[in-house]
Amino acid sequence: MELDDIDKRIVSALQAEGRLPIVELADRVGLSPTPCQRRVRRLEEEGLIERYAALVPPAAMGIQLQALVEVTLEDHSERTVEAFEAAIRARPEVVACYAMTGDMDFLVHVFAADLGQFSEFAMKALLRMPGVKGTRSSFIMQAVKNDLAWAPSVAKAPSQKRVR
Questions:
Q1: Which residues form a coiled coil (predicted)?
Q2: Among 147, 160, 131, 146, which Cα is nearest to 15's?
Q3: Where are the domains of the chain?
């Protein structure tokens, strides 16, 4: 899907503030509300906007530990990779998993209430997943930057005429 400048401004504004009323969103991007709503609906229907979510500090939900776990697999056969990926997707403590280049095969972001819960996951689930050869865990001490609204900020449209 090719995004024009207005689509990019819509996405940027919604990533920063997902509950923005359509009238205010339209004003920010230089459209009238009806065409703005049509564009948002198209972005949703075409899957560019995947979903809306509330960003909550993990500690507020009892998550005191976050780990990044490097995973290496025994082999890279399609069967092994698919089985590992399916097992990872089924684990609620895994909030993200990335296939990587370099020394590791996957990088897994794990949330846990405490070290005991992480240990339980690592020893009884992760190490027993299909094809896992080894893991190496690093614990996040502090989030220096955590900006999930990653779209580049696009400045408010400079007092342009509304497009109808």
A1: none
A2: 147
A3: 5-45, 58-139
The closest alpha carbon to 133, from 93, 91, 77, belongs to 77
Q: 78's torsion region: left (phi>0), alpha (psi -120 to 50) or beta?
A: alpha
Is 140 within 8 Å of 68 (Cβ atoms)? yes
Q: What is the pTM of this model?
A: 0.81
Distance, C-alpha 153 to centroid of its chain? 17
Torsion sign, CA atoms 56, 61, 62, 66: negative
Strand partners, 107: 70, 98
**Neighbouring C-beta atoms of residue 122, cutoff 10 Å:** 18
CATH topology classification for 5-45: Arc Repressor Mutant, subunit A (1.10.10)
pLDDT tens, position by position, 96-145: 999 999 999 999 999 999 999 999 999 999 999 999 999 999 999 999 98
pLDDT of res. 157: 43
pLDDT value for 146? 83
